[in-house]
Amino acid sequence: MRNEPLKLTLILISTTILLYHAFHLFYLWSEIPDTIAIHFSKGEPDQWGSKYILFIMPIVSILTWFLIGLFVKKPEKLNYVNLTEENKEIQYIKVKKVMLVIQYLGTITFAFTNEAALRNAVGMESGLPSSIAIVLLCICFIAPIYHLFWAATLKN
């Protein structure tokens, strides 16, 4: 499979980030107040929740990773633009690559978003994890759009 180096790189990066975040969460657990800000409006917290909510995003991240992984295994089940017998293999390879990027960068985005919430809860600077999460989220939106335009320009 031509996506193996990309997949191995993404696995290594996402696993490292998730393990770091899990370690950081458990390390700071005793410093986290029982009630933390869970929603902000104009930079100020306006909704509060239990500190246990910090476990929800990693769980959702892993579930999302698993569900997207099911699509990566069966690219022929997805919808395509300009799919022909001549270009179907290249389209399947490209869509697998796009789905891998979304799968792993989405997982990393969840981890950085939760890291920002964790840092905010204990009074640490949370701008960098938030910024990284926003950039990764943008990449997750741009990747399928790029693929869509690429597929639309394929010759029959």
Describe the structure.
The protein is mainly alpha-helical. The chain has one domain. Helices cover 66% and strands 9% of the residues. The chain contains four helices and two strands; from the N terminus they run H-E-E-H-H-H. It has helices at 4-28, 56-73, 88-121, 127-152, and strands at residues 35-41, 44-50. The protein has a two-stranded antiparallel sheet with strand order 1-2. Helix 2 (56-73) packs antiparallel against helix 3 (88-121). The longest helix is centred in the last third of the chain and has 34 residues, at 88-121. It starts with a helix and ends with a helix.
Percent helix range: 55-70%
Order of helices and strands: HEEHHH
How many strands, what sense, and barrel or not for the largest sheet?
A: 2 strands, antiparallel
| Spatial order of the strands forming the largest sheet | 1-2
Uncertain segments are none
Strand content bin: 5-15%
Which descriptor suits the 3D outline?
A: elongated
Q: Which whole number gives the mean pLDDT? A: 89
Short structural summary:
With 156 residues, the chain is mostly helical. The chain has 4 helices and 2 strands; from the N terminus they run αββααα.
List the helices and strands and how they pair.
Elements lengths: L3 H25 L6 E7 L2 E7 L5 H18 L14 H34 L5 H26 L4
Antiparallel strand pairs: 1-2
Helix pairs in contact: 1-3, 2-3, 3-4
